[in-house]
Amino acid sequence: MDFEAIIGERTAKLTLLSRTDKILKVSVDGIIYELDCVTTGNGVYSIISEGKSYDIDVVQGLSNKQFIVNSDMSEYKVEIVDAESRYMKAMNKAKGFDEGNIIFCPMPGKIVKILVKVGDTVEKGQTMVIVSAMKMESEFKASKEGVIKEIAVAEEETVSGGQKMIVLE
Amino acid sequence: MIKKILVANRGEIAVRVMRSCKELGIKTVAVFSDADRKAKHVRYADEAYHIGASPSSESYLRMDKIMEVAKRSGADAIHPGYGFLSENGDFAQLCEDEGIIFIGPSPYAIHTMGDKITARQTMIEAGVPVVPGTKEKITSEKKALEVIQNIGFPVMIKASAGGGGKGMRLVKEESELISAIRGARSEAKSSFGDDAVYIEKYISSPHHIEFQILADKFGHTIHLCERECSVQRRHQKVVEETPSPIMTAELRDKMGRDAVAAAKAVEYYGAGTIEFLVDDNLNYYFLEMNTRLQVEHPITERVVGVDIVREQINIANGLNLTYTQEQIKQRGHSIECRIYAEDPENNFMPSPGIIREIVEPLGLGVRTDGYMYEGFEIPIFYDPMISKLIVWGESRDEAIHRMKRTLDEYKISGVKTSISFLKRIMECPDFYEGKYNTHFIEKNLDFLLSKTNCDKHCEDIAMIAAFAEYMSKLKKIQPTTQFEVYYNKWKDVGRIKAAMRI
Question: Which SS3 state, helix, strand or coil, does residue B170 take?
């Protein structure tokens, strides 16, 4: 089975070679790793690679194929691309659907103000929604010029992390 | 003697106050809002009462409801913590009127120090140096110009009722003055309902150094030395340490005496903090007094060995101070890092949510004051500070290395935190050499936001971990998968835990 993993600018090819109760054998861009990899099942991984011990914590990101990986060194966003997501991406592309057109709320909060309405033309950098969380107000701006296609939230509404707020066209 | 204390607060400080109460054999009463039903302070207290909806204006700021709970539970005292009602003179007065001990200063001291212009006047009379500027509120723009001719630009326009950077304007030249005064006034009016503003000389690269004081009701007043609080972002403290790297024994003595004089000028009793601005030539000026327990009080507790909350309770009980000034000695060095639920890489956007896993650091010289546990949802309604990490070392050097070690050990997943940012502060040469002032974060922002480089190997390991998690998730959905199923008890425990949470 072949997979891809996207980390920052890099896309790497992942191949699962074997998995036993202890040893995970994976090839990453052709380099074969044979790792002692155990987990508590709660996203906490202890990996030993050639005697080096890594304490790693994996949390799900915005979708179930996006992960936030915390290692001792730092934090990474990793997306795993499997057959299903490859298919979805191709479908979306065919439909002209672009994820960059959707404004998600990255954290739970409360919608303070919506400054646009459906049909409005917005410029790049224009503030569309203000969300308040923990006594702080954050402005969400248009990443590019476009027309408001959908507003999925209402003022005073409480939103959860990863919730869709606005769709641009 | 106080037998039962209602803690009119939430989060880490409520738990912190209750800890001292338990050691003193005093019963504790928690109050909570809708969002805090599962909060640690509720679980930790002997009694807990619901006081309203999640927004603090409908719960933790409701004097009437808190007083009602105090009566109902039979509490004989209220500890306000910090924030919320802690510096509300009317609440202190209400407690007095209702015959419940307010663990804090008198309403008079709160009111006097809460109004910046009155506080300045009181300090000038007490002989405590204040930042050069106006003694009264500005009545006309012409008069303002006269004052500025004496002290020179740049100046700060500040709201008398102000705080948190609101109603504050920096004026660099005459042409900006009138619009700045008008702007500060209208902001002060809308934020505090009081448009009185005054002018202060702008101290360009100040250190923010404060003195902890304790005073009993018999006029005994002592100070517990200084705290250096110059590492700030948007007027919010991020890291504090004591002793201050720029402090000398003579200066400490002098500032300490002025801090005590400042407290005595308002017949202060309880614990309080005198904040000073200190310039590069070690000239210092009274900035304001915080008439409550401070967030950063643990570093003082660690270095002088005094439980400040216990002293607050003793003072409220009408006892003498436990210590004389001569008994207060600093030993070693202490640093506190405030851990915020925010994303430093994304413009410090707040990050509330459910704590998935938490591992707090342990070992010699470590203290964490927090309120999180696995499965707890950090509410969106309150302050983003979720924990304080306090370390102690024999020397400043040891304390910095210990702080780095403990930040490495501190694992919080489920929400974003400022831990990586704090680690970079510890690694920053300006901090390490103790050469910093309130512009530290601004000046070093590029360094602080840069990541420790990770090579290709390190990326590979990260991808493999994500891949392993992806496979394990897949397995949960489809029990019979293409991958070899293996039996692991730890995983079963994890699955049961995950299922129970739903």
Answer: strand
